[in-house]
Structure formats: C-alpha cells, structure tokens
Sequence to fold (429 residues):
Amino acid sequence: MEHFQKTGNQFNIVCVNPGRKAPDFLFRSKQRHNSSESYHRDKGLSHRSIVMEYFESKVRYFYDVLGCFGEVSADYLCYGFTPFLSFLSELQPKTSTEMKQNYLKAACSLMAATALAFVSCNNMEEPAMDQSAPETRAATIDNFARVVYVEVNDVNPLNAGEYTLSNGEPFFTHVILFASNIHGDAAGNASNYNNPNNEAILSNPAKYIAPLQAKGIKVVLTILPNWQNIDFTSLNDTQADQLATILAYAVNKYGLDGIGFDNEYGGTVTSVSGSYGNLITKLRAKLPAGKLITLFQYNTGGSSQINATAGAKLDYVYSDFAYYNTSISVAGVTKEHYAPMSINLGNYYSAYQISQYGNYAYDLTEAGYGAIMHFNLRRTSERNQLSLFNSIADGAWEETVTCENGNRPQDWTFVSSGYTITYDEATAE
Fold:
C-alpha cells in the first residue's frame, strides 16, 4: 500500500502496489472513528481500541473501495489480517470478551474484503500514483505552545528544560515562573513584589533563565495578587500605568520574554470598569516587540473587563484546569491563541486518564487550538509525569518525550525579605 486519502467518512486507497509495505497509520492513535469531540470521550476508549473500532464500523467500505483499484499484492493480504492478530495478543486482561470478539470479527471482515478485491481486480491496470501533498493540521508542532508553570518556591525551573521530543526540540516551549505579586501601598501606588525564592531566581538570570532560553524556551514571569485588596480588576488609570511600567521594566531587568497574568487572591477589591483590559493595553505599548503577554483564565475572573481590542493583544490564554474546555471567556482571543487543555502536574493520574489526555491532545491540535498548559511541574522524584507527556506528544504529533535530568534540587540562597520593584525604580533610568 502506498497512499491513502480520506474522503467523507471513509479512507480510499489510492494505490496498491505489490511488494510495498502497507502503512501502519491506521494503527496510530490519530486515526479516529469519528471526528466529533464527544464520541471517544463518552466511550472512554484507549487510542488503540478507538482504531480497532474504526475498522469494525468502516470495514464495509473495503468491499466497494478495494475493488475499484489495481492489483492487490499478497503483502496486502497479510496486512489485512496479521496486525489484528498481533493486537489481540497484546490486549490487557481487563478487556472484555465481547470487545475481543468484535476485534476478531473486524479482522475477519477485512480479510474477506481484501480477498474479494484480490480476486476481482487481479487483471486491472494499476492507477497513477497520487502525488498531492498529505493533509496537514492547523496546529503543527512548530506553531504550538507547550506551556509549563513552575512553582519557584520549591522547584528548580531548569528541570523544565530537560524534557525533549524525539525530534530534538524541547517538549516545553514556554516556562512560566510562578509567581511574583502585585502590591499596593497606603497611598494607592502599585508595585511588584518578588518573594525570597522568586527574587533568588530572577536576580540570577544567567543561571536560571538564560540556559532555558538557549534551548529556545521562552521564560515568562507570572504576576499574581496577594491578598492586598488590589488586583487587575481594581486599577484606576494611574495604577494601571504604574504597574505596566513596572512590569515592562522587570522584563528588561531580568532578561525575561514576557509577563503572565493570573487574577486570584486579590482580597476585597472595588472593581474599576475596563481595568484589566486597560492594563493589558498599556503593557503591550510599553513592551518591546516580540515580548509576550499571557493570561490564565481563572474562573473567568475579570474577563468581562477585557474588551476585544485588549484581548487581541494577548499572546496566549490558558483555560482553568480542564481536559478540554473550548469556552474562551476573553473577548478578542482566537483559538490559535488559546489552550483548552490545562493540567495540574501535582496530581497523580491513572493510565486511563493519561490515555484520555492523549486523546484530547489529538482533538485540540486537529481543531486548530494553539497551546496546552501544564501547571506545577514537580521534581521527577516527587511526581514523574513522563508517561503523561508521552501520551500528549503521541496524541498530538506522534512524538515521544525523554527526560535527561528532571530532578534538580532547589539550590539557590533565599533573598531575605524578597524584593519590591516600585514605580520610582522603574522610571529612574
């Protein structure tokens, strides 16, 4: 078998060439029974079982399709049956007897269809090879953000740079340092506070930031409220300008690639209409070209304050923790800039859950979404999520992930009392 094309709900065989090995793509996780989002989620099927069910439901097409093309080789006869037998032998004990019988039924049906094609088409001339380019996705591995938040209170951010795809690229494209805080003084002035751990990392960018950037990873600093009765929804125009100036200064001071927002833990605040969007707009104007602004869509908090003009200035928005949340609450944000999947890496996940994340990774890349977010990367000695990353990489791009050293310790000296960046400092130069 040389080449397949998808037409409607079936795969048409474009060329059957004796001596050629049939492709194994039908046994990959990406060949789904149905393109609808709900099908495989509701059934709770694994990658391989979804593929087998695809065969079972669509085998009737082989009678019509295979019989329309040229010579079918003996190799193809083997292709039609042997992989099924191999798969059956690999099924886990918990697989139901009924499901196993269904797989075998599909294998026999496919074998019969193939044999029929062999008899009826033996003397037909082989058609010309289809030279058209294969279908590609909107979200490729090269234009897709694989984001990870690192809790710098106790985790070395360099661990994030140790996860590598089989093509040599880093698995994570963006590392988010979590987090600095927005503070306000008695006079109402806004400032940025780095706690003792965060400041220890930020003040040593050559050790903790530059090595990640050397691998092509963007390093972004998240800003988080801190129970100071001030957040991104409560800023008047003066405060918004102050904070935007401070954050742009911090990006330059620490050699960062951008700023991320997460509007939680503000305390008691008085909402100011359009505050959040105003801050985003002001920050974009103050940042150099190419620097990033991202936002965690926490409980849709503050989203109503971001109009479409401001939302369009965001590089990425990450859904609140979800398998597959396609509801974008921030106006002006398109799916190319949105992560419907966000994962808490501090949790334990079953084999079934890991498989499901792979399924959803396939879904979102097929649909053209632009990112996946992972929160709270831990040391591998505490939570080794390599199997989860492999499921995601396989589901999305048929890639694998390895980790050279994901267990670097917290090796910095705390900066006593942390450090506060004021508007005066940011405007002194």
